[in-house]
Amino acid sequence: MGSGIICLKELYVYARENEISFRDQEYTRIKNRLIRNVPKETGWYLWVKMDEIGDETNYTYIYIGKAKRSIISSLNYRLGQELSNERMLFWEEISLEQRENIERTYPYANFERGERKEGSTHIVWVSDPSCKERKLRDIELLLIGMFDPTANNQLVRTVEDAKDIKDKMKETLRGNEMRPRVMA
Predict the structure, then answer these.
(1) Is there a contact between 64 and 44 (Cβ–Cβ < 8 Å)?
(2) Could you give the angle at which helices 75-85 and 25-35 cross, rounded to 10 degrees?
(3) CA–CA separation, 139 and 144 (whole Å)
(4) Are 141 and 155 in contact (CB under 8 A)?
(5) What is the pLDDT along the chain (184 residues), one digit of tens a residue?
(6) Strands annotated E in the chain
(7) Domain boundaries, the chain
(8) Residues 2-176, CATH architecture
(9) Quick check: pTM over 0.85?
(10) Which secondary-structure segment (H or E) carries 154?
(11) How far apart, in whole angstroms, are the C-alpha atoms of residue 97 and residue 119?
């Protein structure tokens, strides 16, 4: 198992000094340098906002994702794609005209996902090349339940639904304790 952390500060600095473009080679060079040590393996990643207040660090967990073993869905590939397609999160202001132009010329741009990740300062990743693909989703859901990230709305609802079902099952069992047991 491997792990690492990517600091996104360099992308925020770049965004402050440059206009947004989805054909920007310098942005791509920075992004590629940031992910160069991320393996092309199976694993999970967490977008997080770290605030240092005095001697303490506060964490806001923003998004948890998973990555499969294949080249086009590995940790390295997924993080590279998200940093490319959701790059608008690094720019403070994007005009309506810029947004329309980007959506027209770059079909993979994902403003909605980028907006949900605004404020992220780091990405933490963990690789596990031995993890079987069928366990990936289960572990992702458990991580979402543990971290309760702000941008995993759809999956958080799934975890909440599972908790409701668990509670109903326990309630049903407790209600059944008073009834005589029938053995077949």
Answers:
(1) yes
(2) 150
(3) 9
(4) yes
(5) 899 999 999 999 999 999 888 888 999 999 999 999 999 999 999 999 998 877 778 899 999 999 998 777 899 999 999 999 998 889 888 888 888 888 888 878 888 888 889 999 999 999 999 998 889 988 998 898 888 898 887 665 666 677 777 788 788 777 765 555 555 5
(6) 2-7, 43-53, 56-67, 122-127
(7) 2-176
(8) 3-Layer(aba) Sandwich (3.40)
(9) no
(10) helix 153-176
(11) 23
Backbone angles phi, psi at 48, to 5 degrees: -140, 150
Q: Are 59 and 147 spatial neighbours (Cβ–Cβ below 8 Å)?
A: no
Q: Tokens representing 5?
A: 């952390």
Token pair of 116, please? 């949900």
Q: Which single residue is written with the structure tokens 């980007």?
A: 102
